[in-house]
Amino acid sequence: MEIVVCMKRVPETGDAEIAVDSTGRDIVRDRLTYDINESDNYALEEAVLLKEKFGGTVTLVSMGPPETDETLRMGLAKGGDVAVRLWDHRFARSDGHATAFVLAKAIREMEFDLVLTGCIATDDGRTQVGVTIAALLGIPHATYVMKVDIEDGIATVQSELEGGLIAVNRMKTPALFTIQTGINEPRYPSLISIKKATAKEIRTLTLDDLGLEASSAGEEGSKTKIVKLTPPPVGKRAEILEGAPEVVSARLTEIFKEKGMI
Amino acid sequence: MRDIFVLAEHRRGELRDITIEMLTKGRELAECCGVPLTAVLLGHGVDRFAEKLASYADTVVLIDHPQLENFNSETYQAALSPLLEDRQPFLTLIGHTAFGIDVAPRLSAQSNIPLATDCIDIRCEDDRVFAVRQIYGGKLNAEVSYENAPQYLATIRPASFPVREYGLKGEIVRTDCPALKTPEREFLEYVEAPAGEVDITQADVIVAVGRGIKEKETLPLVEELAKSLGGVLACSRPIVDAGWLPKDRQVGSSGTIVAINKYPNAPVFNEADYGIVGDLFKVLPTLKEKIAELKSG
Amino acid sequence: MGGVITPNLEIRDAIVEKGGLEAYKCYQCGKCMSLCPWFHIETVEFPVYRIPQSVRLGIATSSEDKEEIAREIEEMFRCIGCEACTSRCPLGVSVPNIVRAIRRLLVEYGAFPSELKAIVSKIYNVGNPLGEPRERRTDWTEGYDVPIFRPEMEFLYFSCCLPAYDSRGREIAHATVTIFKNAGLSFGILPDESCCCESIRRVGAEKVFQEVAKANVDAFIRSGVRKIVTTSPHCYSTFRREYVEFGVDFEVLHQTQLFSLLLDDNRLRPRKPLPKRVVYHDPCTLGRQNGVYDEPRHILRSIPELELIEIPNFSREHSLCCGAGGGGLWLDWPMEERISNVRINQVLETEAEVLAVACPYCLQMFEDTAKSMNLSLEVKDVAELLAASL
């Protein structure tokens, strides 16, 4: 089974302080550590599990500047076989549509039974690229996938809806699934696979290699644009109760009483 | 300027809350721009929703077809594209939900309509639309503009807009469904999450834990507190992913939220109604005591 | 197992390249096993002496099985860098350094526990493992009138991140500056500093260490720092022995060394009695790794009516680690696998009322352990005991 996995290199911002940069349209990236986007990691693991079951190759694709090689190598160490990075300075500041457009162009040239992506990127949270790629490739898709079963070219997948409800859908491959976290347990790479990954070559494709017009990629090819970034309104913050445990507990208990919870 | 469209979302015989939230906001936008508001209802045997939609919208476009009975990204898109092509609404709102995000990008690509997703706010200025999204897990807001286009599409985050009644009586227009191909994706069935002994959706009080508790061994302590409040133990997604609690304990974000965290800067305080900066292990026992005192005294 | 082990020389070379050269010196005598803290936990097999051997054969983490690999990698993060093995080794082979070389490879590929990823990320981003804002690094000085360092001052006081931000840790810093002022010491603090990064260097996050440490060095030089006194032995050790890699040569003292000197000079006169049985725990980084054993004891003995107790057999260079080093403070091993529990039990056997430490990590580790074991044992930093006696 030939599987393509789309991966994104994202900054770790969960515990970090982030500041808006001087352009007002991006964040200051100096002191941020980067990693594979969380749900992409699950997508990769799912691809590797399927490869272990059915044989075949896992091809990693990522759109990003040279630093992205780091992330692709992590993916190669975790079971990816081949990695392709798409980059051109003209790809910069792509929105969800432009990103999907470039990825789809590259993937279209590949042989695949499945395309797996994460369901959401932890940086921009767009949740858009996977389904857009499917539409551009003209293949069926399923989102928030929690289980994949494949037999004789037919995929039966479980998609997670709100409230833990599952929708079961079936389609022929080739198909695209956006993968939800928790579908599997992502593996650690071994030193052996790390060593192998260090030696692998990562193909880089530019705008011209992909045969794209500059107008269809990057900021030019985007349908939406970030005008500015602002901190969220302060009003959302919690009312902080201060003092020793005795004091805050007493106050909180009062609040529960006022709200009729006790 | 032309209409504002809102796609109604329903599932298993119930109209979902996001629909009303979008209609409330849609109505506000429509009145602001001086244009009609149209609700779009796709399905099979869903007439009973139309009246509710009509209390918000000037027009309800009702497309009833057996192939639309269950949500399917391809059939929904195939029904919507010709409608949007024909009616050219200025702005179409779809819920940023499992269904919504399954169809909106497809609709955007097939009909070539720019899309902004997971919007927590949206406004119209002359002929342009601006949306606000959250990025980096809510640490920053991004104001987003669209390239100039005849139509705009946005998915709206649930619980972003308050609801109100309008009590209108819009016109319900049964509209023919365009010819639908058999979709490549076939819906088979819904499956409920395995029922645990606890239904957190029925609980009045939920005490939820996140990654901060660090060890599984802490759960019984928190569960005791939850019980003393007449509530249940629940958790955030990472706890479910780690297998410490079953899926049915995963919590959303509605209701009164009290957060306890050692660090004053913890992002959870942006989501909570009340916050305590302190050590969970010092506060919980004291809180339990106080509640017990209040109950007995 | 059975069968012949196939060496993987490429892996061996990769580890050696990252700093694992010492592995060649080991002749497998096994003496290191006798002091490794993990040896005290029955359910854990952490074969210290096998590590150099496995590096030489290139089989450190050798499995192809997903579950087994996860276990092997998690094992690599058990080493708490106490260097008990190093102190026993006839050739002074440092297993923590060899483990660090392996970790460097793993960290580069993101193959390390997520708790440690978070710590590295926080230190890189805001200069402390707690994720607290940089601007608040000197908030702990409120009410204590601590001057900002100027070149004409004698010492830079480097508080360490826990004393700077953690509510319990701050009590150590408060005690320390109280002592300094009492002695009329010339000192100041620098708002513009970050974590010393000792622990993340041990974790294998070498790139981040280099960048953040360099920034510290630049800040110190810019501010005209010549002498540094630290609360934490980790900061002390890393400034003294590792920051020299940046071509600097600050004079570094741990605060117990400085207090001891001040006592000898009669600039500190502990008067108030502390009539308690106090047992002193030698922090690994202060004692075994840097040879500072006597000064903390000198301080404790100078406090009137304090009865100083030693932990029999496991004192001074034989001190058993609290378990917080090498990233251990942030990893949560299950209750039955806590080295700190073993150490606390040793402490309890002495029937001491107070456990005196000289390291903020030891303090946090032992206090958490005492709490989870429901003990009435008091845990105090030497500085706190001294300050209370002045």
Provide an overview of this structure.
The complex is a heterotrimer of chains A (262), B (297) and C (390). With 262 residues, chain A is of the alpha/beta class. Chain A has helices spanning 38-54, 68-77, 96-108, 129-137, 191-199, 218-221, 245-258, and strands at residues 2-6, 9-11, 34-36, 57-63, 82-86, 114-118, 141-151, 154-160, 166-172, 175-179, 202-205, 224-230, 239-241. In chain A, β8 and β9 (166-172) form a beta hairpin. In chain A, 54% of the residues are buried. Chain B is α/β, with parallel strands linked by helices and 297 residues long. Chain B contains seven helices and 16 strands. In chain B, α5 (219-228) packs parallel to α7 (280-296). The termini of chain B are far apart. The mean pLDDT of chain B is 89. With 390 residues, chain C is α/β, with parallel strands linked by helices. Chain C has 16 helices and eight strands. In chain C, α1 (9-20) packs across α2, α1 (9-20) crosses α5 (95-108) and α8 (167-182) packs across α16. Chain C is globular and about 70 Å long. Chains in contact: A-B, A-C, B-C.
Shape of chain B: elongated
Low-confidence stretches of chain B are none
State the helicity of chain C in percent bands: 40-55%
Count of DSSP strands of chain C: 8
Q: Strands of the biggest beta sheet of chain C: in what spatial order?
A: 2-1-3-4
Distance N to C terminus of chain C? 63 Å
Q: How many DSSP-defined strands of chain B?
A: 16
- Mean pLDDT of chain B, as a whole number? 89
Poorly predicted runs of chain C are none
**Helix content bin of chain B:** 25-40%
Give a quick account of the main beta sheet of chain C: strands, pairing sense, barrel closure.
4 strands, parallel
Biggest pleated-sheet summary of chain B = 9 strands, mixed
Biggest chain-to-chain interface with counts? A-B, 79 and 90 residues
Task: State the main characteristics.
A: alpha/beta; Rossmann fold; two-stranded antiparallel sheet; 29% helix; B: alpha/beta; nine-stranded mixed β-sheet; two-stranded antiparallel ribbon; 28% strand
Lay out the secondary structure.
The complex is a heterotrimer of chains A (262), B (297) and C (390).
Chain A: E1 2-6, E2 9-11, E3 34-36, H1 38-54, E4 57-63, H2 68-77, E5 82-86, H3 96-108, E6 114-118, H4 129-137, E7 141-151, E8 154-160, E9 166-172, E10 175-179, H5 191-199, E11 202-205, H6 218-221, E12 224-230, E13 239-241, H7 245-258
Parallel strand pairs in A: 1-4, 1-6, 4-5, 5-11, 6-10, 7-10
Antiparallel strand pairs in A: 2-3, 7-8, 8-9
Chain B: E1 4-7, E2 10-11, E3 14-15, H1 17-33, E4 37-43, H2 47-54, E5 59-64, H3 73-87, E6 91-95, H4 100-111, E7 115-125, E8 128-135, E9 140-146, E10 152-156, E11 171-174, E12 186-191, E13 206-209, H5 219-228, E14 232-235, H6 237-241, E15 258-261, E16 274-277, H7 280-296
Parallel strand pairs in B: 1-4, 1-6, 4-5, 5-11, 6-10, 7-10, 13-14, 15-16
Antiparallel strand pairs in B: 2-3, 7-8, 8-9
Chain C: H1 9-20, H2 50-57, H3 66-76, H4 84-88, H5 95-108, H6 114-126, E1 155-158, H7 161-165, H8 167-182, E2 187-188, H9 198-203, H10 206-222, E3 227-230, H11 233-242, E4 251-254, H12 255-264, E5 277-280, H13 294-301, E6 307-309, H14 339-349, E7 354-357, H15 360-372, E8 378-381, H16 382-389
Helix pairs in contact in C: 1-2, 1-5, 8-16, 12-13
